[in-house]
Amino acid sequence: MPNSVRTFADDEHVWREGDRAFHCAIVMSGFLVGQKIVGGRNQILSVHVPGDMPDLHMLHLLHMDHDLCSAGPSTIAFVPHTFLNHLLVDSPTLTHAFWRKTLVDAAICRQAVANLGSRDALARVAHFFCELAARLEVVGLLHEDQFRLPFTQQNLADVCGLSTVHINRTVQELRRCGLIEWKAGVVTLFHRDELACVADFTPEYLHLSEGKRPEIHPLPVDAF
Amino acid sequence: MPNSVRTFADDEHVWREGDRAFHCAIVMSGFLVGQKIVGGRNQILSVHVPGDMPDLHMLHLLHMDHDLCSAGPSTIAFVPHTFLNHLLVDSPTLTHAFWRKTLVDAAICRQAVANLGSRDALARVAHFFCELAARLEVVGLLHEDQFRLPFTQQNLADVCGLSTVHINRTVQELRRCGLIEWKAGVVTLFHRDELACVADFTPEYLHLSEGKRPEIHPLPVDAF
DNA sequence: CGAAGTTTTGACACGGATCAAGTGAGGTGG
DNA sequence: CCACCTCACTTGATCCGTGTCAAAACTTCG
Question: What CA–CA distance (Å, rounded) separates A171 from A169?
Fold first, then answer.
């Protein structure tokens, strides 16, 4: 694919709200977050890990409705929309794959709504770690329940809709319970099952292990 | 389109979490909500108005990750996936339109994250009314800033992640300020601009008035 | 070594939850 | 047509989770 790669420092903007994008970003390394100032606070709407295409939706929408910003240093590849559009015209399969990717992002977003609307601070933070671990595992960035996370506690506060002070106390509680460690930008999960229990986390919404999309004329079930 | 129409009473389930769907629902009248029990509470993740296709994502995902449920009586049309898939194979334009629809739903979901994460009760409720009015206006169900809403205050509480008691007080405050009226299942917005101000509502994220998707070989800009 | 940013701690304030009781309004049966 | 029941809405009192403010300890880096 034709592409140009660019590196971003911590807290550098890839797109801003209102921007019109002519390229799709692909996270090669590091983390990107979708965010927006609302009610005087910065609210992180989505977290994107390597392999994600955080602005795939811009293929069909005219203007960004939030900022896209690096959290920690990251390297991003940009592919022209024109190229992708030609690709998609020729390949229904690829179209479905891309579409599906945006649908999984939407499912993750729905889960965030559930998280913010109905869980207390401890469960929210625990859920964040569980989800991130699950997603990083898929792309091979989780090693022995351990992963790099170049976030400040402020970032985590912006994800969880909490104050930094309270995030700090909540993270300490998770540490005290022996569930996680987080220092020098590295997170370790000590008891993933217990953490998942605290978080009320189940990974189904990530739609990870679902079989491939069936052919349009489905095969008999026992063909699988 | 081949379709079967069914009516649902208040609080009847269309799909449940884990279900596999072989038809797409289209809301003909009434309201559907996507919801999920989380942390002992019922959290409404999305609200669907007539014209919406609340489970369009099930064309590509295997299992529902939340319940779909009627709020108030509603009539729903069901179209077989097999039919839609054939339609989409033949029409890239329609594929883009459907894809785009799921992307707008995702944008609305992101806004819900912002809402729950960063706004206080008053702004959340006000935002809900603003958004719903804007969406109903598009489908011609808003008449003189007035629309039918067959919700209980409990439903609204589930949308906003608040208790019924507090929803009640918040709605009363909006009434006291002369911003809304809500009785007998009919909502009236008295000062939409002021309400939008309280809610910090801007409709861009609904991506309503954006021009149509340009052709893949774009025309010169002054062609519009 | 100093400066700036991040994490930690404590004291206190407040928004919203919870609990409990009371008021309606619509639906049903006698 | 009225008595009753149920469910939604309303109100008041109290409690708790989280926010805010302010300062101290620690880190990172120039």
Answer: 6
Q: What values do phi and psi take at B186, rounded to 5? A: -125, 130
Query: Residues A36, A43: contact at Cβ < 8 Å?
Result: yes
User: Nearest CA to CA, how far is A86 from chain B (Å)?
Assistant: 7
What pLDDT is stored for residue A200 in this prediction?
Answer: 96
Structure tokens at B36: 């999920």
Q: State whether the Cα torsion A191-A34-B212-A1 is positive or negative.
A: negative
Q: For residue B20, what are the domain limits?
A: 1-90
Shared domain check, B56 and B10: yes
Chain D nucleotides with an atom closer than 7 Å to a protein C-beta: 8-13, 17-22, 28
**pLDDT reading at B219 higher than 50:** no
Which two structure tokens, joined as six digits, stand for A212?
């491939």
Number of Cβ within a 10 Å radius of residue B122: 17
pTM for this predicted structure: 0.91
Residue B223 φ/ψ, nearest 5 degrees? -75, -10
Q: Does A210 touch chain B (CB under 8 A)?
A: yes
CB of A78 closer than 8 Å to CB of A24: yes
- Alpha carbon separation from A162 to A66, A168, A180 (Å, rounded): 20, 10, 19
CATH code of the domain containing A200: 1.10.10.10
pLDDT in tens, A120-129: 999 999 999 9
Same domain, A210 and A163: yes
Judge if B155 and B45 occupy the same domain: no
